[in-house]
Amino acid sequence: MAVTILFLIIFFAIMISVGLYCRKRSTDVDGFVLAGRSIGPWMTAFAFGTSYFSAVIFVGYAGQFGWNFGLASTWIGLANCLIGSLLAWKILGRRTRIVSQKLNCRTMPDFFGRRYDSQALRLTAAGIVFVFLIPYTASLYNGLSSLFSLAFDVRYFWCILVMAVLTGIYVLFGGYMATAMNDFIQGIIMLFGIIAVVAAVLAVNGGLASAVTQLAGIPAPEGVRAGAYASALGTDPLSLLFVVVLTSMGTWGLPQMVGKFYSIRSEGDIRKGTIISTLFALIVAGGCYFLGGFGRLYDVDVASVGFDRIIPTMLMSLNKPVIISLVIVLVLAASMSTLSSLVLTSSSTLVLDLFAPLKKKHPFSAKGKVVVMRLFIVFFIVVSAVLAVLKEAFGFTFIAQMMGVSWGALAGAFLAPFLYGLYWKKTSRASVWTCFFFAVGVMVIQMIVSLGHFTMPGVLGYLFASSIRSGSIAIVGGLVIVPVVSVFTQAADRVLLEEDISLSPSVG
Chain-centre distance of CA 442, in angstroms? Predict the structure, then answer.
């Protein structure tokens, strides 16, 4: 415990110091939201990766999918690396930077409003962000309770309070610059932590070959071949595919992820950032899901304590104080990095895309916008913390189900209109509206089904059995809906013609 407390004190001191150091660069809107579009490749890549992989991934998803699929869950991490990071940077990175500068947009709703010449689309997109990012933010506190209660025997309330206050301090002072710098530091901690814990778990189980042999000997579910937990495709390949689609393609449409490309400094930095981000994802995501695949080697009563207890149980069994301390800081760093990104995205979207357009008669001043954004950062942090406390204290299933729905609704609504809008001048305003309504509608139905209000028959029952499946349908459906509707409807009045977006390296 002494080692852990020392690690935490050093970690907290660095986070706050960075926030104070960056406060002078966060006095105007561009500085606060985009750091003046001056972030280099290393910080952008780490900001992308740490926003992608939170404690929900390390403690929750890695444990859950590792338990369900065995070592085949490693495919999720590899897909996150290749699709969620490498292809996202290749396809979206450079184009997003160019178009966002051409249109002078700072947020994803701002892009929709300017690209499709529609204030209504901008306001609707901002509303979707507001509604679905709050429960997603609340989910970031998940996993902390299991780990901290085993390590310190402290109440979940204090974990939430410490994380919320510290994140709020450095984001309020330093804006996106402080977030990016701290993400870089937090990313380094995550890299070392993942490598250390994977190596330690394998060593405790006699090495890789021994651990895999033990895993192959675990009885598989009825109807599944023997040794499935150590096989390449696991116990349920189709369900695994749904997880891959949602967790890998979903990043392409999440505003807090795409926003990283708005602020990167140059096209050369994008090329470097692509490599760095991909390697980061390979180690962190690949390591997390690979680690989770060995969860069944440990005695965990999942039915009683839930999937969030699997990874903490693995860690506590190591009996290595330094590694346990490092992983505790890792989980806290992963949660704080994603939380800072989400609250900054939420507040900037709400102020710039919802409130500012509605205050045409009495517009905000430049400094006024920054002040209001800071106020809403406090608001979002407080609301998300309260939701997390309520969920833990009273077991509110509504909050828990909303968390699962958030990713699918955001990615499903935004991915296709954003992607096609970057590359295809004939993308129509009607197709964007259709995609918005389809994705949000699918995920609202999912929430109602999950709460037990009614059941779906046949194939629909299978697709709506979890938010992972329905979220994948929302994403893939949007990719089909937007081009089909665009063919039969008129393109937006203001289109991005190919000659308007020069692809030469000199742009920007």
Answer: 20
Tokens of 416: 């296709």
| Domain of residue 98, residue span | 2-395
Q: Which of 470, 54, 438, 457 is nearest to 245 (CA)?
A: 470
Measured distance CA(155)–CA(164) in Å, rounded: 15
Q: Tell me if 504 is assigned to some domain.
A: no
Tell me if 492 is assigned to some domain.
no
Residue 255 located in a structural domain: yes
For residue 264, give the 3-state DSSP assignment. strand
Contact 373, 179 (CB under 8 A): no
* pLDDT at res. 217: 87
Can you state the angle between helices 397-423 and 366-394, rounded to 10 degrees? 140
Residues near 248 by beta carbon (within 8 Å), at least 6 away in sequence: 76, 79, 80, 82, 83, 84
Structure tokens at 139: 């989910």
Q: Evaluate if residue 345 carries a pLDDT over 80.
A: yes
Q: Based on the structure, what is the number of domains in the chain?
A: 1
> For residue 346, what are its two tokens?
């939420």
Length of the chain: 508
Q: How far apart are CA 37 and CA 101, in angstroms?
A: 9
Residue 328 domain flag: yes
Secondary structure of residue 187 in the 3-state scheme: helix
- Report the percentage of the chain scoring pLDDT > 90: 21
- In single-letter form, the type of residue at position 430 comes to A
What does the mean pLDDT of the chain come to? 82
Instruction: Report the b/e string of 415-435 with b at 16+ CB within 10 A.
Output: bbbbbbbbeeeebbbbbbbbb
Separation of alpha carbons 479 and 502, rounded Å:
25
CATH number at residue 21: 1.20.1730.10
Q: How far is CA 126 from the centre of its chain?
A: 18
pLDDT in tens, 354-374: 777 766 666 767 677 888 888
